[in-house]
Amino acid sequence: MSEPDDAWRQAAHRLVLMRHAQAAPAGFGDFGPHADFRRPLTPQGRSVAHLRGRELRAAGFVPDLALVSPALRTRQTWEEMGSFFGDHSPDVQYVNALYETSADRIRDMLWEVDEKYNNIIILSHNPGIGNLAMELAGCHGSGHVPPSLSLGFPPAAMACFFSAIPWNTAQNHAITFYRALCD
């Protein structure tokens, strides 16, 4: 195992930021206010979401808390990831504020999380979730973009981070980028 893998596995606090998997477009002629909210995953999206669950299991990630947008495509992404929790079942919270939100608001939600949660997954939408991933990876201040994030944050992208301190007190300098899966 590499040094970054060891650091990730031994970290006291781990965070996964994930964008929902590929969704179908809204139905033809469906322009109602909830058309976007009801978009389901495509078969490809379901397959990739399942793969992301396997990748998290392989990385030893077991969430204590899952914060999930209530949009159909994010709920289906979460379900398709499968159980990677063993005997432990995470606290799953469907959070309206994760739909159509900014990186700052997602970050505020992270700061509001109780200290009892060490391993958190946030499943949301672009541009907010992708912007936060880029910010925490250190891309905004330094101009350096990790190769895995160089093409942005497409559907089913995940960015993984760890910290020695609780998420509700972690500032950017205390958060370490582990890796991103953006293929």
Describe the structure.
By secondary structure, the protein is an alpha/beta fold. 30% of the residues lie in helices and 19% in strands. The protein is built from six helices and six strands. The chain has helices spanning 3-10, 43-58, 72-80, 103-111, 128-136, 139-142; strands at residues 13-19, 65-68, 91-94, 119-124, 158-163, 175-181. Helix 2 crosses helix 3 (72-80) and helix 4 crosses helix 5 (128-136). The chain is globular and about 50 Å long. The mean pLDDT is 89.
List the helices and strands and how they pair.
Layout: H1 3-10, E1 13-19, H2 43-58, E2 65-68, H3 72-80, E3 91-94, H4 103-111, E4 119-124, H5 128-136, H6 139-142, E5 158-163, E6 175-181
Parallel strand pairs: 1-4, 2-3, 2-4
Antiparallel strand pairs: 1-5, 5-6
Structure characteristics:
single chain, 183 residues, alpha/beta, 6-stranded mixed sheet, 6 helices, 30% helix, 19% strand, globular
Overall geometric form: globular
- Enumerate the strands of the largest sheet in spatial order, edge to edge or round the barrel: 3-2-4-1-5-6
Number of helices: 6
What's the number of extended β-strand segments?
A: 6
Short description:
This protein has 183 residues and is α/β, with parallel strands linked by helices.
